[in-house]
Amino acid sequence: MILVMNRFTVTPGREKDFEEAFKGRAKLVETLPGFMGFDVLRPTHSTGSGQAEEGGVFISMTRWASMADFENWTQSEAFKQGHSRRHPGMFAGHPQLEIFEVFDSTLRPPEGAQGSQEA
Predict the structure, then answer these.
(1) Main-chain dihedrals φ then ψ at residue 116, nearest 5 degrees
(2) Is residue 64 in some structural domain?
(3) 113 pLDDT exceeds 80?
(4) CA within 13 Å, CB half, 17
(5) What is the dihedral of CA 114, 104, 22, 52, to 10 degrees?
(6) Which of 84, 85, 86, 93 is nearest to 10 (CA)?
(7) Model-level pTM?
(8) What is the mean pLDDT of the chain?
(9) Terminal CA-CA length for the chain
């Protein structure tokens, strides 16, 4: 399994815009072979004070069955469509892409999900 993370540094005051942009996304990635899941993470306790600071780093995280599946996504028409919207001033810099191969995991499908096995 491949885990792909994009780290977005969001401009302070644009957090809600960022979240709405992701909630309103085209969701085309979900139609691609090998796609396993998508999560978007928001910061909670970014400072030592226990309070989330304005702006901060948000992370989009996708899981893929293989690197080839992820690469096929990045070369697809669906990828182009899914990344065509622009959001001027929303980001403080370019997103940072990180790709990991999962070598050990306790991730389980939800109970009753297709493919889950019962003991």
Answers:
(1) -75, 145
(2) yes
(3) no
(4) 16
(5) 130
(6) 93
(7) 0.76
(8) 83
(9) 23
Q: Sheet of 35-41: strands edge to edge?
A: 35-41, 56-64, 2-10, 96-101
Q: How far apart are CA 100 and CA 84, in angstroms?
A: 25
Q: Where are the beta strands (DSSP E) in the chain?
A: 2-10, 35-41, 56-64, 96-101
Q: Which of 17, 18, 25 is nearest to 81 (CA)?
A: 25
CATH of the domain at 17: 3.30.70.100
Structural domains counted in the chain: 1
Residue 102 DSSP SS3 = coil
Amino acid (one-letter) located at 119: A
Residue 41 has what DSSP assignment?
Answer: E
Residue 109 lies in a domain: no
Q: For strand 2-10 and strand 56-64, is the pairing parallel, antiparallel, or unpaired?
A: antiparallel
Domain that holds residue 14: 2-43+55-101
One-letter amino acid of 16 = K
Per-residue model confidence as pLDDT tens digits over 28-43: 888 899 999 999 999 8
- Hey, what are 82's tokens? 């899914």
